[in-house]
Amino acid sequence: MADSQRCGRYSYEDYELTAQWLLSRTEHRPKVAIVCGSGLGDLATQLCDANVFHYRDIPNFLETTVPGHAGRLLFGLLSGEVCVCMQGRVHAYEGHSMEQITYPVRVFKLMGIETLILTNAAGGLNPDYKAGDIMLVRDHINLPGLMGLNPLVGPNDERLGVRFPCLSDTYDPALRRACSRVAAQLGVTELVHEGVLCMQTGPCYETVAESRLLRAFGADAVGMSTLPEAVCAYHCGLRVLALTLITNMAVCNYRSEERTNHAEVLHTSSMRAVALQTLVSAVVGQLGQFHRGGGGGGAAAAID
Ligand SMILES: O=P(O)(O)O[C@@H]1C[C@H](O)[C@@H](CO)O1
Ligand SMILES: Nc1nc2[nH]cnc2c(=O)[nH]1
Predict the structure, then answer these.
(1) Origin, by domain of life (predicted)?
(2) Which residues are catalytic?
(3) Among candidates 204, 211, 200, which has minimal Cα distance to 249?
(4) How far is the C-alpha of 107 from the C-alpha of 282, rounded, in Å?
(5) Which of 38, 78, 131, 263 has the fewest CB atoms within 10 Å, measured from its CB?
(6) Rounded Cα–Cα distance for residues 76 and 28 (Å)
């Protein structure tokens, strides 16, 4: 493909090459992909009959550099459903473009994935939240995207999605309802909220003034990932569920002596890993009923 026809750095053929590389090395044929955020990678170890690949060995995958992101892709069974699971992700602040950090999402699409479950760690802005709570992402404020760092910037390949996607329904309402129901069945409703996730690129955590600004904008939590993946996934027709673990409260008060740090983020992740894994596994267990290869449109009817 000529450079002018490329989506940007990558062509459709690059995504296809990686998809075929993976599918030719595993017999698993997943419909569900899961991305594990900071410290949440143990979810991947729950997969049965797993085939494991290191990102460094996968064509065009980037290596992870951040503690809590193992950098392995696992195929296997979770709650009886065939899944592919990213044990860690790469972030823009590691020096990568939005297109690079979302590369796996389009590979998943070409592998036949229908549902993408994203997880991440973030700071709570909503005063009703506390560290250890889980937020189902209802909507987002993509600060890098609003500033031009959107993964869809560049020539659009119609095989991957439309030029001007409307993002009002990015986070599938039926999946969110299913997740809330599962949370109630598991008796963890009091931990689970629905809210708006804001992304800034990082790697700095927010100043007090920035946290106040983001809260005033309507954000309930702020993180450094997930939204570019969600945008790319929705663009190419995947159903998206995003679960944010509130690992700390963003500092919104000059009198506070709290200082956000990655060790605290990983500590809270490890404390809540089992709850989040249980929730995600139970949701995945509900997905099979509507994964009949029919594509995204049937989700709401089937899961309700
Ligand atoms: O990959 P996620 O978004 O879960 O990781 C968050 C954002 C930064 O990478 C890190 C900051 O502590 O955690
Ligand atoms: N931007 C941001 N990302 C985080 N990831 C985990 N905690 C935080 C936080 O407080 N702010």
Answers:
(1) Eukaryota
(2) 38, 69, 91, 93-94, 121, 224-225, 248, 262
(3) 211
(4) 25
(5) 263
(6) 7
Distance CA 91, CA 303 (A): 32
Size of the chain in residues: 304
From 96, 143, 225, give the residue whose CB has the most ligand 1 atoms within 8 Å, as the site to mutate: 225
What are the strands, taking DSSP E only, across 108-259? 115-124, 134-142, 192-199, 221-223, 239-249
Query: Could you read off the pLDDT of 38-55 as tens digits, one per residue?
Result: 878 999 999 999 999 999
Q: How far apart are CA 98 and CA 177, in angstroms?
A: 29
Task: For residue 67, say if its preceding peptide bond is cis, omega within 30 degrees of 0.
Answer: no
CB 85 within 8 A of CB 42: no
Could you say which residues of the chain have pLDDT below 70?
Answer: 1-8, 289-290, 292-304
**Helical residues (DSSP H) of the chain, grouped into ranges:** 12-23, 98-101, 103-111, 143-146, 173-185, 208-217, 227-235, 262-285, 299-303
Distance 247 CA to ligand 2 centre (A): 8
Task: Record the pTM.
Answer: 0.94
Q: Are 34 and 58 in contact, with CB atoms under 8 Å apart?
A: no
